[in-house]
Amino acid sequence: MIRFIVCAVFICLGLFFEITAVIGVYRFDTALRRMHAAALGDTMGLFFIVLGLIVAEGLSGNLLKYAMLVLLLWNTSPIASHLIGKLEYETNEALSKEVETWKS
Amino acid sequence: MTKKKNKAWDWLVDGSQALDDTMIQEYAEGESSETPSVFSRPHPRESGYYERFHTWSHDRGARLMKVLYAVMVVCICVGISALLIATTSDMPQFGDAKPVEDDALSAFYVEEGYLHTGAPNIVTSIILDFRGFDTLGESHVLFIAVCTVMMLLYIPRRDDPEHLREWLASEADDRATEPHNDLILQQGAKLIVPMVMIFGIYILLNGHLSPGGGFSGGTVLGAGMILYLLSFGFQKTERFFNIHTFRRVSTAALMFYALSKGYIFFTGANRIPNGIGTGQFGAILSGGLLLPLSIAVGLVVACTMYVLYTLFRKGDL
């Protein structure tokens, strides 16, 4: 029972982060701000959901797979965000009107 | 609706006159020329109709379309969800043996399939053995897709100086704008690409024992190669994969598939023993032709993904 509650709390926390990310992606107006919101869901949301699954699973060999999942996601998602941000920085000519940049 | 009465607008409306620079300049400056136009204007009634329908499509029609769109979106989403839910509620429970027992073909696959193929994975044995002809067609569809894209987009490298200069310029442009010089991406790819490749090879080689097989393994391999290309550039990938590699690998894989399947069909139809054993059940080298066939399919799929990407990106390998 306690395990179920802990698992549910973690998964609800993860879903909260995911919903925040979705709302942010739709409500923010520029690409960089949207990316910031989306990255939140990719890192914290998925981490808490996987943590909840680990608690539900208990000690077993699948724990290693979950850990691999988190490692993979935390490695790849920031790199993808970095590349999108770089592309936005290089192609958007009106970027200095939106945010503070090195160019301005 | 306020209409800019100038020559460029006339050109837009009737299109009978050639457009020159002064008209564009006038339009850009927004000066409405008060002098009577030398161009032929449409009949007043016609232009009235035009304005009426034009404005309708811009305000009331647009609003109507928006409402229609919202209604259609809701209807289609709810309808498709209801259909899917109804279909899934008809499906048998997980672990329910009754539908399998009722259907003679399913019962044969589940109960006796492994005796004929020697593979624990029923899905792979159906795809590559019982219905191998279908999969042969699918691999050829992939090959034909690449051939068609190549016909349309492939730009072979030519050695005369004019084309060489163009090619060098486009290469330099490619190198400058693509992200493969990005250090963060390269460090990430150094970690990710070997894992992706090993995972793809595992899926490919273990297809007859566990979930996986040629199509999924080949897709993972192709994605790994595309990631490597994106992070390190064409200079690295050219060393192990060029147009000749693609030709040899995919042709050899398809030929092998077609020939071995033809041999199996021929011997099976004429009731001749084919001399290919099923091996020890559950071992990696078992299942007769399943493993080589899934490797062939995986190679074709990986080559297809990679070549489609490179052709769409720069028309060369």
Write structural notes for this entry.
- Chain A has 104 residues and is an all-alpha fold.
- Chain A has one domain.
- Chain A has 4 helices and no strands.
- Chain A has helices spanning 2-27, 31-57, 62-91, 95-98.
- In chain A, helix 1 (2-27) runs antiparallel to helix 2 and helix 2 runs antiparallel to helix 3 (62-91).
- The N and C termini of chain A lie far apart (57 Å).
- The mean pLDDT of chain A is 86.
- Chain B is mostly helical.
- Chain B starts with 6 loop residues before the first helix and ends with a helix.
- Helix content of chain B is 72%, strand content 0%.
- Chain B is built from 14 helices and no strands.
- Chain B has 2 domains: 7-58, no CATH class; 122-314, no CATH class.
- In chain B, helix 6 crosses helix 7, helix 11 runs parallel beside helix 14 and helix 13 packs antiparallel against helix 14 (290-314).
- The A-B interface holds A 72, 75-76, 79, 82-83, 86-87 and B 179, 182, 184-185, 188, 191-192, 195.
Largest interface: A-B, 8 and 8 residues
Shape, per Cα inertia axes of chain B: extended
Coarse morphology of chain A? elongated
**How would you sum up the major sheet of chain B?**
none
Instruction: Assign the structural class of chain A, choosing from mainly alpha, mainly beta, alpha/beta, alpha+beta, or little secondary structure.
Output: mainly alpha
Secondary structure tally: strands of chain B: 0
Number of DSSP helical runs of chain A? 4
Summed up, the helix count of chain B is: 14
Structural class of chain B: mainly alpha
Order of SSEs of chain B, N→C? Answer: HHHHHHHHHHHHHH
Measured as a percent range, the helix fraction of chain B is over 70%
Average pLDDT reading of chain B:
81
Strand content bin of chain A: under 5%
Q: From the alpha carbons, calculate the radius of gyration of chain A and give it in angstroms.
A: 17 Å
Given as residue ranges, the uncertain stretches of chain A (5+ residues, pLDDT < 50) are none
Between the first and last Cα atoms of chain A, what is the distance in angstroms?
A: 57 Å
Domains of chain A, number: 1
Work out the number of β strands of chain A.
Answer: 0
Indicate how many domains the architecture of chain B comprises: 2
Helical coverage of chain A, percent range: over 70%
Major sheet characteristics of chain A? none
